[in-house]
Amino acid sequence: MTRPHAYFAGTGRGVPAKIMTNDDFAAIGIETNDEWIVSRTGIRQRYIAGPNDSTCSMAATAARQAMKRAGVVEGELDAIVLSTATADRLLPATAVDLQAELGASRSAAFDIGAACAGFIFAASVGEGLIATGNAETVLIVGSERMSSIIDWKDRSTCVLFGDGAGAAVLKRVPAKRSLKPAGILSTYMRSDGTLADLLYRPAGGAAIPFSEAVLADRSYLVRMAGREVFKHAVRSMADATDRALDIAKLTPHDIDLLIPHQANIRIIEATAKHANLSMDKVYVNVDRYGNTSSASVAIALDEAIECGRLQPGQTVMLVAFGAGFTWASMVLRV
Ligand code: ACO
């Protein structure tokens, strides 16, 4: 059967209540200012998890909304694919905690680690499960509590990230289909592990477990070579938009909306320019959320549908880049 195999039947998001603005950094002793952050990144505020907001709880809020909109109950989920760089525990996967929370007893549940590109990776895995007949209905989630793993003493990284979750329910496209059924038209995923040390957490895993030395030098927290990451992000997002269109056999003219990973407005603008799309065809919420890693594209997609920016029958391109490096794209008709 040719594409589409799977379509997005419903989306949702789960975002903490607490907002932290750029001006709030002064109160925690960070030497920065709104002008620097806005001009370099486009970020004005981000949501920060409270003590009761976990990666699982934000994922559950997003998932319940997506399931409600898709008209799907927990017993219908065949698989839960959760992308996160901020698992609540190192073992087991956060996806099984989410499965238990939702009561999705028939479901297989597992995490994937592809950082900011993770939601598109999860959607590709979900599409594959459906295309091979292994699943009818798959819940995909990107959920991140980035505030737990960033170094709140490092002004070059702590101003960039925020917390939140986005989710979608993927369902099989019916055999009896319309001429242009909603669904996934192309997927593209790439990685380059030779660049891993440009954005990583040096310690705290099995290779260098927690110790007093690790705690003292804060090497369990995110470290990033910002300028290098920026260059690779622009290059990889450009590659991903090209490939998404090639594989879907579409041109920029066919794209109604571009939803890029929301890390930095300058990366978003460069991606749109490369893809030959004007900024009025680009969904931007980095000003309100900062970089929520794998939740970013999922939250933006949910907002775009909810506010009517994306209408049934329209074609959207998702594109993301993250630690690994990983990058990915997807074209879908909603
Ligand atoms: N406030 C004020 N000054 C700051 C801050 C801050 N928050 N952070 C750094 N600076 C200072 C630096 O100390 C430096 O000062 P110096 O010149 O006196 O040494 C100066 O600003 C310039 O620092 P750079 O790092 O060179 O600034 P740059 O223009 O490259 O911007 C930034 C930094 C915003 C991090 C940029 O490199 C960037 O956006 N990189 C991509 C990061 C990214 O998007 N990562 C995530 C993508 S992948 C994923 O989502 C996981």
Structural write-up:
The chain has two domains: 6-172, Peroxisomal Thiolase, Chain A, domain 1, CATH 3.40.47.10; 183-333, Thiolase/Chalcone synthase (Peroxisomal Thiolase, Chain A, domain 1). It is built from ten helices and 13 strands. It is of the alpha/beta class and 334 residues long. The strands form four sheets. A five-stranded mixed sheet has the order 1-7-6-4-5, with helices on both faces. Strands 8-13-12-11 form a four-stranded mixed sheet, with helices on both faces. Helix 3 (94-102) links the parallel strand 4 and strand 5. It is 31% helix and 23% strand. The protein binds acetyl coenzyme *A. Acetyl coenzyme *A is lined by residues 32, 36-37, 40-41, 115-116, 155-156, 159, 199, 226-227, 229-230, 233, 263-264, 267, 291, 293, 321-323.
